[in-house]
Amino acid sequence: MLEIRARNRAEENERRAIFLAQVSTAVAESMDLRDAHAVVVRRAIPTLGALATLIVVDGAKVRCAATAHVRPASQRLLSTMCAEYCHDPASPDIALRALRERQSLLIPVADGDTLRKNDLPPRQIDFFEALCVRSMMSVPLFARDAITGVLTFASDTRSYDRDDLRFAEAYAQQIGMVLQNITLLAQAREAIRARNDFLLLAGHELRTPLTALKLAIDLLRRRLIEPVLPPVQRVVDKIGQQATRLSRLIDLVVLAPLHGGRTPPLRIEQLDLCELVSDVIRDSADLPTRHACELRCSAERPILLQGDRTGLEVVVSNLLSNAFKFGAGRPVEVSVAGDGSRATLVVRDHGVGIPADRLPHIFERYERAASSANFGGLGLGLHIAAQIVAAHGGQIHVDSRIGEGSTFTVALPTATPIAISPV
């Protein structure tokens, strides 16, 4: 007899484990939190009872999120009862009592006398009698240490015992974790949506004055009286080039997160890396003065490659800015080399250096080479540079020692990057 009982108990435990796994999977596959709540109560019946209700904590309030009954004709009655009695946290309702006390409650015999002793109002007792409730149990849902809701089950055929309560608690524990994951995912999606909305707005607001600037430049070009003095022509051309560069920067930096964090499709053209580096250095002529550094550049012969001009200008500019910022007033050296299939850019400073424990993370978003208390910046420059280099099929690497400075090396293929759309 004992062996039979043990075997029956083992089989029952196995059935319950399978049931919990199946319900967890069904809830996890829900499209959103509202759908998940409905699945939680719907899948609980009839295994855990004739009816099931789910009350969730919503800030300082509580609300009935879902109800289910084995008899469709009783569903409306159950929903009405929950709507009337499951919204006040101070209510004597059994479920809300479990919520306040943060513990499970079992009522083996839920007759009128027992419910009156629990201070339930007469109308709610009438609801329970109309639903033929014989026994009840309420179990809280937790996410870590915070209580997030309470599940209530009722039977119309038998009395619950402690074993039933343990099963309901296992169900609540499993469901609580799944619902928390769905909640976190929904919050993450909402945060991404808000971020994307902001970036779209920022991109629009940045483009509006830029468009006006481009129109003004075109108008200026048309109104220049021939012959135009070379210095004037150079200034006008430079303004136009910088306006175009700003427009591309909006795509590369501001709107990049809208492409899943990846750099948008590059605009490929043949360019001379030596010339590009020299142009960036010339445009950044105030950096050495501002940081009291000496700039040494070794870029003498043409090194041709296929790449996005604006993107590579961002890479060079960010590396230069980083070198001057952390260069401690010492010389910054820039060199460009090529071997036919590969072009290499090296930016070396002799400044504060990067701690060894930060080196593996230096190209991550918001990572800084040194304390933000001593050096400004958002920690995005090196991350953006690394993203652009990777989009070109290249690699970026850093060697650094504290007090000796840092050397950033960028290696780029000279052929057209794979899977990149040309202009």
Automatic annotation (TrEMBL):
> Which keywords appear in this protein's UniProt record, sorted alphabetically?
Kinase, Phosphoprotein, Transferase
Q: Which reaction does it catalyse?
A: ATP + protein L-histidine = ADP + protein N-phospho-L-histidine
Q: Which residues form the Histidine kinase domain?
A: 201-416
Stated EC number for the protein is: 2.7.13.3
Q: Which PROSITE patterns match?
A: HIS_KIN (PS50109)
Q: What class of enzyme is it?
A: transferase
Q: What is this protein called?
A: histidine kinase
Q: Name one Pfam family in it.
A: HATPase_c
The record, for SUPFAM superfamilies, names: ATPase domain of HSP90 chaperone/DNA topoisomerase II/histidine kinase, GAF domain-like, Homodimeric domain of signal transducing histidine kinase
Q: Organism, per UniProt?
A: Nannocystis pusilla
Q: Which GO terms describe its molecular function?
A: phosphorelay sensor kinase activity
